[in-house]
Design a protein that fits this description.
Layout lengths: L8 E5 L2 H7 L9 H15 L3 E5 L17
Parallel strand pairs: 1-2
Amino acid sequence: MGISFPSPVDLQMDNSTAEVFVNDTAYKMKLTHIDVRQKWVQTLQDKKILRPVHVDTKNNLANLFTKILGK
């Protein structure tokens, strides 16, 4: 399509459980949909398309959209 984007893309996260899955240190479980997602992220990481990066909760802009805002 001719659209360029920076590679690797930073996957910013502040969730320690998500970091365990991305780093492939979690045990396999009976929830296959989670295992499939883990393998997909691992594949993107292996191909240098995605780079997991820890972001402190205070600096995570996505948290703004998950909280109830005051008037």
